[in-house]
Amino acid sequence: MKVLILGGDGYLGWPTAMYLSRRGYEVAVLDNMIKHFWEAEVGVDPLVQTRPMHIRSQVWEELTGQQIQTFVCDIAENPKCLYKAIDKFMPDAIVHFAEQPSAPFSMMDRDKCVTTQQNNVNGTLNLIFAIQHTNPDIHIIKLGTMGEYGTPNIDIEEGWLNVEHNGRKDRVLYPKKPHSFYHLSKVHDSNNLEFACRAWDLRVTDLNQGAVYGIDTEETKMHPDLITSFHYDSIFGTVINRFVVQVAKNLPITVYGSGNQQRGFLNILDTIKCIELAIESPAEKGEFRVFNQFTEQFSLNNLASMVSDVAQKMGLDPVVEHIKNPRVEMEDHYYNAQHSGLLELGLKPNLLTDSVIESMIKNVLKHIDRVDENLIYPKIKWCHKK
Amino acid sequence: MKVLILGGDGYLGWPTAMYLSRRGYEVAVLDNMIKHFWEAEVGVDPLVQTRPMHIRSQVWEELTGQQIQTFVCDIAENPKCLYKAIDKFMPDAIVHFAEQPSAPFSMMDRDKCVTTQQNNVNGTLNLIFAIQHTNPDIHIIKLGTMGEYGTPNIDIEEGWLNVEHNGRKDRVLYPKKPHSFYHLSKVHDSNNLEFACRAWDLRVTDLNQGAVYGIDTEETKMHPDLITSFHYDSIFGTVINRFVVQVAKNLPITVYGSGNQQRGFLNILDTIKCIELAIESPAEKGEFRVFNQFTEQFSLNNLASMVSDVAQKMGLDPVVEHIKNPRVEMEDHYYNAQHSGLLELGLKPNLLTDSVIESMIKNVLKHIDRVDENLIYPKIKWCHKK
Q1: Which residue of B113, B163, B180 is in closest CB contact with A125?
Q2: pTM, to two decimals
Q3: Does the structure's ipTM exceed the value 0.95?
C-alpha cells in the first residue's frame, strides 16, 4: 500500500511517515517548508533543531533500508507539482497535514488570517481536484480539529448529527462554532470535502483531532537526526507540551482564564495509530467519514494539576498561575464529545499517565538550555480593543 | 445615513446604489471590475452593454443632483484600498455584493473554483478586518444565497436552528449542504462573519437571497446610460432571466433534469427594498442576523409553465424541453424555507405576475438581435467523468 503524506516535514507528518514505512507501507512525504518561514516570521523555534526533510529521509533509508520519497511542493500555490507528485507516486491514500496549524497565528492580524485560510482552503481544494483528475479512488485522510466544533450545549457527535425538526428528520453535517480563523479554515475544508464526496464520489476520512502531546515515537528515538519538530511556544505549541516545558524550566504553568475549559487530548502515538487505522479501513466511495480523534477529556485545570503533581514528585517546584485569557472562548461550558469510531476500528489508547508526563519532562530537561521563556507567554490577543 | 456598496458596478449593486441615492442616502460604490474580465474569459456578454461605473455615476449626478462616489478597488487582493475607502467615506452601513456570483463558473475547473473561493472568502475577511480596524459599529449587509442550504429534508430556518439532542438544547448555525464551490464560498463567508460577531462584536446581516429576476428598476429606466448588467447566459444568467430570453428568441425553454427542483425567487425590486429595510433596522452589536430573502417558491417546471403561458398569450411559440441536468443536485426533494424576517420588517413583495413576465419579455424583444443562443445552453458539467 502506498501512502503520500502532505506536510511530511512537520511535527506529526514526519513521525507518521517513519511509522508507516517501518510497517511495510511505501511512503512519500511532501512539504513546502513554509512552516520554517512562519516560525522565523513570528520569531519562534522548536525545542531542538530538526534536520532537513531530505536528510532525515536519507538517514531513515540508511538505518532501515526503506525509502521515503521526498517532494518539495506548495500544494496551495503550485497545484501542478501536486498533480505531478500524485501521477508519479500513485498513492492509495493521501494523508493531509499540510496546513497552517496555529489558532493564535491566524488571529495575529489580517495578513496572517488571510494567509491561514488561503493556504489551508486552497491547498485542500487543489488536492480535491488533483485526486478527481488523477484517480478518484484515492482515499483522502484529512486532519481536522476538535476545535472546529467549539463548545456547543449539546453532545458533540462524529461529524454528522441526526436532527428532528418540526416532525421531519434529516442527517446533517454537525453545526460548528469554532473559536478562531484557523479553526474556521478547517471547517471550510470539511465543507468542501463533503461536497466533493457528494458530487464526485471521492472517499474522505476527516479526523477531528484533539490537542496532541508528546515528543517521541519509537522511530524518532532510533537516531538523533530523526527527531520531529517540538514546539513549546504560545503560537505553535500545544497546551500539554507548554505546561511540561514550563515546569521543566521552573516557570509557572500559565492557565488561560478560569481553566475550566474542557478539551479532548491524545498522545502523538495515537495520532499516528489512528491514521494507520483509517488507511486500513478506507471510507467508501462517496463517503465523507468523520472521526473525533482524541482519547481523553480534561479541563485545563486538570491538566495543570496532573503536570504539577508529577513535577513535584520529581523534585521540581511547580506553580500554577491563571492569566487573563487571550482567546475569546467560553470558560464554563458543557462538553461531551463522542469518540467511539476509532476505538471500534481497534485503537488502544496511550493515556496521559504520570509516567508519560514524567518522561516528557525528562526529555525536555535534556534540552533545557534551549528553552526561551519569552516564547511561552501569550502575546497574541483575540480582541484588539481600540 | 451613508452607505458604501461593494460590487457597486454589478447587476444588483448599481440599481441598489441609485435607489438609495434617490431616497436621500449618501452613497458610494466600490468595485474591482473583475467581472468584466471573467465575462471575457468565459466568452459571454450582457444583453445590453452597460456604461462604465464612473460614467453612470456622472449621468446620475447630472440627472438628480445626487453624487455617488466611486472607488475602484479589489477588496480581495488589495485590502489597503478598502481600508482607505472606509476611512474616507465613513459609511454607517456597507452592502457587500463584491463576490464571484456564479455556481457554474466555480465548477468549470480547478482554477475557477480556487478563484471563486479565494476572491469571495478573502474579500469578506478583509472587510471584517477593515471594519474592526476603522469602526466596528459599521453594519455589514452581506449577500448570501438560499443555495447555501441545499435541499435538506427538514424545514429551512433563517440561518439558525434550535436543536434538541439527547435531552439538551442549543441554538446552532443552520447546517448547510450546498451544491457548488460557489455556494460553499458563501457558507465559508457566513461562518467567518458569525465568528467576527462573536469575537469582535461586529454587527452583520446575512441575506440569503433566492434567484433574482428582472431587468429594470425605476432608476434604471431614468436614462439609457443607467441600465444595469443583465445576463441571460448559462454561467451568469439566473433561471427566470434565461427562460424569458429563450421564449423571446423563439428558443426552447431548457429545464435542467426533471424540473421538480424547488427554489426561492425574488424580483430585483425586492432585493433592493430588502437591503433598505436591513439598513434601516441594523443588526445589534455582536448579532449575526440572517434573513432568507425571497418572496415566492416555485419548481423549475412551474416557472417554465408560467413563462410559456405568457409567451403564448403574446403570440410567441414557446416550447419546454428537459435536458440532462448539468448539476449534481436532488431533483425530487422536500423544500420548505422560512422567510418571514423581511416581511416583518415591512417588505411588500413584488410577485412574479403575468404582467411582470410580459414586461420582461417585451424588454428583451427590444434587444433581441443581441441575444446569442450559443450562450444559453449549459456547457459546464458538475461531473467530469474520466
Answers
A1: B113
A2: 0.98
A3: yes
